[in-house]
Amino acid sequence: MWRVTTAINYVNRKEYYSYVRQVWYLTEPQARVMVDFVKIELIKGLEKHLGYPQSEWWFTDTPSSAVEEVSFDPSLIGQVREDSEYVGGSA
């Protein structure tokens, strides 16, 4: 089983955040083909979360991504997790 993780780090009101989207796939080829799509969906989610379109973002908007093999759990196939995580204060 494979997981695609994409993330964008950003600053909002002098605090650092990481906006993360994870999607699980059964095979590595499925996961690798979906990386660009997951990045696009990450950007759309962050636009909604911040309330600003990407063209108005005040931070670098290049998502990072990783494809990782994970323990098999059939309940995760096709699942999506997306969240903004606080990473630290005072930029």
Q: Outline of this structure?
A:
The protein has about 90 residues and is of the alpha+beta class. About 25% of the residues lie in helices and about 40% in strands.
Features:
four-stranded antiparallel sheet, alpha+beta
Q: How does this structure look, described?
A:
The protein has 91 residues and is an alpha+beta fold. The chain has one domain. The protein is 25% helix and 42% strand. The protein is built from 1 helix and 4 strands; from the N terminus they run E-E-H-E-E. The chain has one helix at residues 28-50, and strands spanning 2-12, 15-25, 64-69, 80-89. The protein has a 4-stranded antiparallel sheet with strand order 3-1-2-4, covered by helices on one side. It is elongated and about 40 Å long. It starts with a strand and ends with a strand. The mean pLDDT is 88.
Task: Give the arrangement of secondary structure elements.
Blueprint: E1 2-12, E2 15-25, H1 28-50, E3 64-69, E4 80-89
Antiparallel strand pairs: 1-2, 1-3, 2-4
Count of all domains: 1
Number of strands: 4
Strand line-up across the major sheet: 3-1-2-4
The radius of gyration is 14 Å
Major β-sheet annotation: 4 strands, antiparallel
Proportion of residues in extended strands: 35-45%
Helix content: 25-40%
Q: Give the low-confidence spans.
A: none
Question: What average pLDDT do the residues reach?
Answer: 88
The geometry reads as: elongated
Number of helices: 1
Through-space gap between termini: 38 Å
**H and E string:** EEHEE
